[in-house]
Amino acid sequence: MSLRRGALWLLPGLILAAAAVLARPGASYAYQDRETVLAGSSLQHPAGTDDLGRDRLVRVSGALLISLTGSLVAAAITTAAAAGVGTLAAFGPAVVGWSAMLVCDVFLALPWMFLLMMVRAAMPLTTSPAHSASITFLVLAALGWPACARAVYRGAVAQRTSGWMLHARSTGLRRAQVIHHILPNLLPLLIPQFLVSIPAFVIAEANLGALGLGISEPLPSWGGMLFELNNSAMLLETRWVYFPLALLIVVLLALEGAAAEA
Amino acid sequence: MATAGRWLAQTIAVVLLVMVGTTTLLRFAPGYFSDAREMDARYAAVTRAELSAEAARSHSLTQMLGTEIGGWIHGNSGVSRQFGVPVWELIQPRLAVSGALLLRGIALAWTLALFASILSSAGRRPSLLWQVPAAILLAVPAAALATLCLLINSGGPVLVLALLLAARDFKFLHRALHKAWLDPHVLHARAQGVRTRHLLRAHIVPALLPQLGALASLSIVTALSALVPIEVIFNVPGIGELAWNAALNRDLPVLLAVTMILALAVVCSGVGSHRTAAWREA
Amino acid sequence: MRPSGIVLIASAGLLLLAARSIAAQEGPRLPGELVWTIGYDPKTFDPAKVDDQESETVRYLTAGVLLRFNRLTQQVEPDLAQSWTVSPDGRTVRFTLRPGLEFSDGSSLTARDVVWSLRRVLLPATQAPVGEEFLEPDKVSVEAFDDRTIVVHLPERVIGIGKVFDEIAIEPAGRPSDGRVTSGPFYVSGYRRSQNISLRRNAHYFDKDVAGHALPYASGIRLDIEENTEQEIRLFRRGDYDLIDNLPPDYFELLKRTEPASVRDLGPSLNTEQMWFNQSPASPLPDWEKAWFRNRAFRVAVSQAIHRDDLARIAYEGHATPAYSFISPANTVWYDRSLTAPHTDVAEARAALQAAGFRRQGSVLLGPDAHPVRFSILTDTDNAARLKMATLIQQDLAALGMQVTVVTLDFPALIDRLMHTQDYEACLLGLENVDPDPNAMMNLWLSSSPNHQWNPSEKTPATPWEAEIDRLMKLQASTGLDAVRRQAVDRVQQIVADEQPFIYLVYPNLLVAYSPRLEGVRPAVLEPHLTWNADRLKLRGQDER
Questions:
Q1: Which of B44, B226, C293, C502 could form a disulfide with C277 if both were Cys (CB 3.0 to 4.6 A apart)?
Q2: Could C407 and A210 be called an inter-chain contact, meaning their C-beta atoms sit closer than 8 Å?
Q3: Tens digits of per-residue pLDDT, A57-68?
Q4: Mean per-residue pLDDT of chain B
């Protein structure tokens, strides 16, 4: 139990620590110290520097704040949208359910990559990295819900025909009166969905960098740092490339702990 | 019979909408009328001729759609824009490769996730032992996991796909099982000393079944999206790799065929779980 | 808990099964076979229709040609032709074939086959890209005098005409075979799409080594289609691949650490990496931005603010050379040592901007129009070094008060902006030079050309200096006098250095790896760097046949 309580405090602690690192005088996530590229741990750079000589600790801290906010918001939006669409489809009129699932199926099969390219084409090229980042997370949220909505729909349909629901309906409760009992029963589906979406969005943001979206240089992107793991040459260069990954794992465990408490 | 009819109508609607959507997206996305070879002095003239032919062909969207959909109705899948060979010839050998990869990956993932979640939820302390590997697998991008496999020279596409899926499935199963163990009747039975194995068979696994349907469709969708980086990195000649190249080269006929297959897979995964639910209702 | 034991064993078994199923994709190597990779499926095996890099690779290895441009000596040498002559006016080329030539199927090769192959390339219906190099292909005539003599009449002089024949495969008359019957060292024997191409040794190939052994040495070549560098390096280290051409700098360093005997840095390549500003009047950019980009002082100041040494040292891990011109020092014939170009000098850049009406307000630079100087640099997604360079330049230009955003796009979307919509401010890309002769860059420098990147397809030259470049490039293309050509090209280099329409950044070094067991490798700066003499390559310890 103490472990879980620890987990609850871990996340705010990490965020505070990251903010403190960023607020330290002289800390810059963009400044390239070109004489110390890919340096190891030192007093000046406790977590070393990246391949352009930027302080890794500051960058990871910045990335933590940016990507975590972005992916938390995006994951919350997707999960809420999925819950809404899924329950509506299951408890609404049959036509609504049928068409909602149709839309989900179509959504899942379309090559959205090209929509993202159009989004990029519609944005001015000088869009600031911060704007580009927020647009990216919103787009991800807007595209992420159908798979989960389908699962929620199946879950809700099962609830609809479950014993307690039949019982409640037979005692004369109206549909609207029982619907708020549905949500707690869908939590075993929604909470993992929320938790799984967070790392997925952190990573997806970096994937979109290829299309000119995402968190662009010089803002630090957590996903971008995880993608350094794609490069075996980089892996052999310094062990600090695993640092963002380790931090993400810690964050995920902390979130898991917090969710277990819920 | 009515269900079958409805399913057919839904499938046709999905496929048609996907065709229209894909064609529109691709046609209006930047780069449909350009080619990297335009920059190469040696090939620029020829490339420009090809592109203007393509521009004439796809001048109006309705006409394009008419050609593509008409072609498919007559069983003609069109000719690949980048390779100049019939699309079906490209897809057919790859279907089996990707299909086998997906099936083996998903089967292995489900086995791993089921056993891991049963073990973790049955234990007194559903602990870090299980959550840590799951968190690691969720945090590592698919492509990075594949690269790590190459680096340490072990593990292959099936394993990577399975591990990625297993971590996600585990998250769901663990929670569902956890809830099942805490059901009043199960708690009661445990207090009376009913053996774990018996509880599993009699209460836990049956309580899990309706969840599995919902999970299955999620799992297939995740697998399909992980297919591209895994096939590209391991150089597996499958549908994912083809789709990726088709997207980069704006190869509409190939991409249409791939998205249609994808749409069918998605619809089928939904049907599978729906039937489970229907069967339980009966 | 009892079931857990069973479960663990079962899952371990499954894991092993899954792990076992990999890496079966590469077939075993045949005796005497060489193996390396190409990046994607060739678009065609028809040597006349080659219009992409990998088709070109296959053509190079399989096609028999009249003349071969020696990639090492950079001289045109007779190949299927025993001798050749060009008339003084450059309009008649006469070839005499070697006696007793044969195709790979054993049929004899005569002037008839040569005439047929040349005419096929010249025919508009074939749409052969190489046909364009004759300038007016429909006015070229080809005739056979006898079984071994062929005469080609051109309507006008073509600079570097010898090299054009390096790209024309001689095929059996009337029987085009997509490379299955060739007169070169190898022929195509098998193709599995997206997996590999098998080439077999042509037993009827004419060439022999000094000791009289028939060439090629290798029994065949397998080209695996592999786009992932990680996989390629892994298989190279395992000995499955014999060589890697064009290594990215980070992987070069990796291999250097693990197999130091197999990597080579061949120094600057012929390629350049450059950045340029969009000067097209047709672009949708606001007028004040167009005015900055057309301002010579602005471009020169940007060029002076960039620390090219840092680009080479950091983005390329030292495997690049700072660049100031379009001709690389690797191009020994055309490189101009007396060229003067603006070098890094931030103070001077600031002063020049001020003189041109730009002024600082805090950390922000304002244009003469009082708009803050803010623009984006486009680059492509696939090249890690380019993104690093753009990020380094971002900081370099911040020192002048310019706010730069870096945007990466996939290639078609990037080309769409560069060539069609003109909707971009600055771009950072590379140019690959396959031909050392500056004449090959004609369509880059002519102001009327669509490949005149900073301002494509100008109806009349927009500036006097572009008009002068046009004149000089046309001059060098029409004269047969080397000294005149040389002078013209030197002058073009100086104009480009003064005006900075392209801001040259680095010449990436040519990085290669090849197995220490591979004999006969003589790396060349021209493509295909390692395999230009594929007929003389063999693995030590392998049987010659």
A1: C293
A2: no
A3: 999 999 999 999
A4: 82
pLDDT, residue B104, reads: 92
Torsion-angle region of residue C138: left (phi > 0), alpha (psi -120 to 50) or beta?
A: alpha
Min CA distance, C434 vs chain B (Å)? Answer: 9
Could you tell me if B40 and B105 lie in one domain? no
Range of the domain at B114: 94-232
Task: Give the pair of three-digit tokens for residue B243.
Answer: 């789709």
Tokens of A168: 């409640």
Beta strands in C472-501 (DSSP E): none
pLDDT at C9 over 80: no
- B124/A contact by beta carbon, under 8 A: no
Best to test chain B binding among A3, A105, A202 (most B CBs inside 10 Å): A105
pLDDT of res. B271: 62
Domain ranges of chain A: 3-21+35-229+252-261
Q: Which is it for strands C502-514 and C272-277: parallel, antiparallel or unpaired?
A: antiparallel
pTM for the full predicted model: 0.90
Burial annotation A236-261 (CB, 10 A radius, 16+ → b, else e): ebbebbebbbebbbbbbbbbbbbbbe
Domains in chain B: how many in total?
A: 2
User: In this structure, is residue B130 part of a structural domain?
Assistant: yes
Do residues A176 and A91 lie in contact, with contact meaning Cβ atoms separated by under 8 Å?
no
Is the CB of A52 less than 8 angstroms away from the CB of C424? no
Do B155 and B47 fall within a single domain? no
Residues of B in contact with C234 (CB under 8 A): 150-151, 153
ipTM score assigned to the predicted complex: 0.89
Specify whether domain A3-21+35-229+252-261 bears CATH 1.10.3720. yes
A170 in reach of chain C (CB within 8 A):
no
pLDDT at C17 over 70: no
Task: Tell which A residues from 155 to 194 touch B, by Cβ distance under 8 Å.
Answer: 155, 157-158, 161, 188-189, 191-193
| Angstroms from A187 CA to nearest CA on chain B | 9
- Which residue of chain C comes nearest to A126, CA vs CA? C376
Cβ-nearest to C415 among B38, B232, B241: B38
Which chains does A contact via 3+ CB–CB distances below 8 A?
Answer: B, C
Regions of chain A with pLDDT less than 70 = 1-4, 175-176, 261-262
